[in-house]
Amino acid sequence: MAAxxxxxxxxxxxxxxxxxxxxxxKGYRGRALKMYPWVCGRCSRExxxxxxxxxxxxxxxxxxxxxxxxxxxxxxxxxxxxxxEHSRLIDxxxxxxxxxxxxxxSTHNPFSGLASLLKDKE
Length: 122
Hints:
Low-confidence stretches: none
Order of helices and strands: HEEHH
Shape: elongated
Distance between the termini: 90 Å
């Protein structure tokens, strides 16, 4: 029974966190849609009520908790441009430490025999 109570409590905490996040998302999304024209900030695609669900709010600093009332951290992007923006972030290795991303060293030296070639011409 102790495990069931713990599982129930954990389920309740997760549900509350999800609900709070959804409320937060609705809040800044609604404000951003009122503040900015319904146009993708990258590809300039225009949106109407019929396809507005495809317009997302992108956080410029990638911090979803940074929601200033003036909207300075938001950018409206279509689904495709938003995915592209986050893919670029992942591809660039943003957030990885030096230990996580080892630097590759070159084993080829194109000038290794240059000194001997130059001596032979003298």
